[in-house]
Design brief:
Elements: H1 7-20, E1 25-29, H2 32-43, E2 47-52, E3 61-66, H3 70-77, E4 80-81, E5 90-91, H4 93-101, E6 107-111, E7 114-117, H5 118-123, E8 128-133
Antiparallel strand pairs: 1-3, 2-3, 4-8, 5-8, 6-7, 6-8
Length: about 130
């Protein structure tokens, strides 16, 4: 059992559960961190999303629309998390280069310049915390 709460892993689990129960849309709570991860997943073609604020509500939400592509939905089934609240996993530039050599292209990491895909981190010569692979 983990001692903390990881909003990204929680969101990915919600997306996976929605995809496999046949739902096309779901709504999660808003944070800039979640939004930056969703931008990467949108760039991968896995989903689309909109930030919403209901009239009369204080808090924002994110409405996620899942892709119709069956292959995209299968990728959510096999996502793998690296960092957790009790165990953070960091990787420098040499380790990232070896991961790309092993064809690990769906890695998402948090760097000093924000959340990005592994290819973008290599272009900018950055290392960071490995979040998940999808």
């Amino acid at each position: 059992m983990t001692s903390g709460f990881d909003p990204i892993l929680s969101m990915l689990s919600e997306i996976k559960n929605a995809a496999f129960s046949g739902h096309k849309n779901l709504e999660v709570g808003y944070s800039r961190y979640r939004e930056s991860v969703l931008k990467i997943l949108k760039k991968m073609g896995l989903l689309d999303f909109k930030v919403i604020k209901m009239e009369g509500q204080i808090f924002k939400g994110i409405n996620i629309e899942l892709s119709e592509d069956k292959e995209a939905l299968r990728r959510f089934k096999s996502y793998r998390s690296f960092s957790r609240p009790g165990r953070r996993v960091y990787s420098g530039l040499p380790q990232l280069k070896s991961l790309v050599a092993k064809k690990k292209y769906g890695l998402v990491l948090s760097t000093s310049l924000g959340v990005m895909e592994i290819r973008e981190a290599l272009k900018r010569s950055l290392g960071g915390e490995l979040l998940f692979e999808i």
